Amino acid sequence: MVTTVGLLQKVCYIMPVILLGTLDTKGVEFQLVRDLLRQHNVATLVMDVGSQGPPHFTPDIGREQVFSAAGSTLAAVLAANDRGQAVELAARGAARLAADLHRQGQVQGVLGLGGSAGTTIGTAAMRALPFGIPKLMVSTLASGQVKQYVGVRDVMMLHSVVDISGLNRISRMVLQNAAAAMAAMVQAGEKSRESGARSQAAADKP
Q: In angstroms, what CA-CA distances link 63 with 72, 87, 94, 110, 151?
């Protein structure tokens, strides 16, 4: 028999938000967003999909895992020296890893940052997840036609206004708003699940 306390503990398990992007070119920005989410008491899982320089900080899921999930290797990607192929493989691997994490109950949301490559990779992972999971892409492309990135999923696009290349007054404000928006969506979801668990527990009482 499942007690009310046990049911609530199961429902209130804190699943992380996936932060997905290139830590070689956008590492400073991702570190800021990660720290902001932590300040909002939101757990994070950082996935590095870069393939150029070394990551700015150590991710939870490295690029080696991403390319392996796509059926390739980091060494092969570096040897090919083909940016288009690297983006395609990173998108495929990130999508598969995100779907696997969701099946394991380890995804509470996805937040990405990037230009054309980062947006392609980040939204591929978002589209691999079901409706209802918060999906937020901070992108330099968000002010244009985004149908190819959103598809039929509930992906939210936030215009970065400026290039995501270092922190300044504008980019810092955009990233702060992005982190706050993701935190609010995640926390609202937690409250909804808690309320549902309480209602179910009350209905199960003899």
A: 11, 12, 9, 17, 25
Taking each helix axis from N to C terminus, what angle separates 116-127 and 83-103, rounded to the nearest 10 degrees? 30
- β partners of residue 135: 110
Q: What is the pLDDT of residue 194?
A: 61
pTM of the full structure: 0.86
DSSP letters for 81-115: T-HHHHHHHHHHHHHHHHHHHHHTT--SEEEEEES
pLDDT in tens, 33-51: 999 999 999 999 999 999 9
**83: amino acid identity, one letter:** R
What does the block give as tokens for 83?
């940016």
Question: What residue spans of 20-154 are helical by DSSP H?
Answer: 27-39, 63-69, 74-80, 83-103, 116-127, 147-150
